Amino acid sequence: MNRHKVQVYSGQIKFLHEYFEDYRDDRVKVEVERLDKIGMVLAVETEMGGEETVQYLKSLFKKTKYGTALHYSFKLLE
User: At residue 21, what are phi and psi to the nearest 5 degrees?
Assistant: First the structure.
């Protein structure tokens, strides 16, 4: 099992935080490690590699009602 840290930035971080807080599915387990005014750090447990994990998380949020309306970025930290 791989453990990745992913930095997420958004002017509306509240919506991303609410979505990813304690998120789990058959591919990932997500915990919010740190929350700031415009960003957060996610700790992600998965079998996927780092960049694949980032793309997967982006695709998950993009499918939500805010996913196409908000501007946000994801960056692999480790």
Answer: -60, 115
What gap in Å lies between CA 74 and CA 58, rounded to an integer?
7
- Fold designation for 2-76: Alpha-Beta Plaits (3.30.70)
Please tell me the distance from the alpha carbon of residue 58 to that of residue 68, in angstroms, as a whole number.
11
pTM: 0.90
DSSP letter for 71, please: -
Tens-digit pLDDT profile for residues 20-55: 999 999 999 999 999 999 999 999 999 999 999 999
What is the sign of the dihedral through the CA atoms of 72, 34, 44 and 29?
negative
Q: Which residues is 49 bridged to in the sheet?
A: none
